[in-house]
Design goal:
The protein is an alpha/beta fold and 245 residues long. It has nine helices and eleven strands. It has one domain: Spore Coat Polysaccharide Biosynthesis Protein SpsA, Chain A (Alpha-Beta Complex).
Length: 245
């Protein structure tokens, strides 16, 4: 079954402009994400989808395949769907351009899950965290799941709410990387935005509001979605040991 990894990349960022081209140890942030995807044996092809010529030129300079997309997409998912719709494949990974610590084996697991579960249309990833600063940060999304690891809800708020102050409550930090069946991805990108999606500002809620199951694969390591200068410092400290897979 053919699987393609697509990295949606754009220069504009709400919190840190041009972050994907900012260097870490003399290589742009985008390179590390691309290299992780290239090392994933389950992916037949890796493509960077962008609408900025500067990104295209930089990506091509380190050997990446690049496809230019419409400049007015509202989300990375729309950008990925545009590229995927013209590619011969069955599975598409949407790999965030600011997640340099994601492991190649995690990408492989996501692809394998869809191969082994032909009725599943969408898969994502989460990490169990106890860090209060993460739990209380609205920029870090939390997810709750059922007994079969299907997502029940995603929120920027702390969920579940520990109303009786019980010990041992597990909290899951959502890692915003997705695997889709191609046909479903194209369909999903054309769906109207839903009420909870608009309230939380979380696109994945569109799937839940349309009764579409999202399987959550739990991983045993944390990642850093790079949004600030401080995040770059944290990544640089962790990158060398983490990058040796």
């Amino acid at each position: 079954m053919k699987a393609v990894g697509i990295i949606p990349a754009r220069l504009k960022s709400k919190r840190l402009a041009k972050k994907i081209l900012k260097p870490i140890s003399n290589r742009p942030l985008l390179w590390y994400v691309w290299q992780r995807a290239k090392n994933a044996s389950a992916l037949n092809k890796v493509i960077i989808a962008c609408c900025d010529r500067e990104v295209k030129e930089k990506a091509q300079s380190f050997g990446a395949q690049v496809i230019m997309t419409h400049p007015r997409h509202k989300s990375g998912t729309d950008r990925v769907a545009e590229v995927a719709s013209a590619i011969d494949c069955e599975i598409v990974l949407n790999i965030q351009a600011d997640e340099p610590l994601i492991k190649s084996e995690t990408l492989n697991k996501m692809v394998r899950f869809l191969i082994d579960n032909p009725k599943q249309r969408m898969v994502s990833v989460a990490f169990a965290t106890t860090k209060r600063e993460q739990l209380e940060d609205p920029n870090i999304v939390k997810v709750v799941v059922d007994n079969s690891a299907n997502a029940l809800y995603f929120s920027r708020a702390l969920i579940p709410y520990n109303h009786q102050k019980r010990a041992g409550v597990r909290y899951l930090k959502h890692i915003g990387i997705y695997a889709y069946r191609k046909n479903f991805l194209v369909e999903f990108s054309q769906m109207a935005q839903t009420p909870l999606e608009k309230i939380e500002g979380l696109e994945q809620l569109r799937a839940l509001e349309n009764a579409i199951n999202i399987k959550i694969i739990e991983i045993d390591y944390d990642t850093i979605g790079v949004d600030t200068e401080e995040d770059f410092k944290k990544v640089e400290e962790k990158l060398d040991p983490c990058f040796k897979e």
